[in-house]
Amino acid sequence: MADEPQAESTVITFALQLSITAHGQSTKELKFREPTGGDLIRYGNPVRFVPGQDITEATFDEGKLANMIAALASINRGAVDQMHPQDIVECGWLIAPFFIPGLSTRRSVQP
Q: What is the DSSP letter of 105?
């Protein structure tokens, strides 16, 4: 199916509260790519999702979240450890829709 158009990958930019050092360079922003199935298999689902009748619970597995942030932002895990805790949580909610059933991040493509 080489003639099928490739979907554009979404890039999400996040401004950090504090600078971190990633790959030897200081940065105050992260650029996240969309996760792949391989990312999910390698790092696990960072979102614990428990649907309920009255209340649906969504929390993070912080270790998996840190690994997923590092992978999707193309930074090393040590750089994630330098992040402000609030930035880690906000990044988690930024990428959470990719990992929660029913919260589609796909855009419809018109022929």
A: -
Structure confidence by residue, pLDDT tens digits, 47-72: 998 887 777 788 999 999 999 999 99
Helices (H) and strands (E) in the chain, counts: 4, 4
**By CB neighbour count within 10 A (0-12 exposed, 13-18 middle, 19+ buried), where does 93 fall?**
exposed
Token reading at 43: 């790092």
Structural domain boundaries enclosing 71: 11-98
Specify the pLDDT at position 97: 92
CA distance 78 to 44: 19
pTM: 0.82
If DSSP codes are grouped into helix, strand and coil, which group holds residue 93?
A: helix
3 state SS for 58-91: EEECHHHHHHHHHHHHCCCHHHHHHCCHHHHHHH
Q: Does a structural domain hold residue 4? A: no
Query: Which residues pair with residue 59 across a beta bridge?
Result: 48
Q: Is residue 103 part of a domain?
A: no
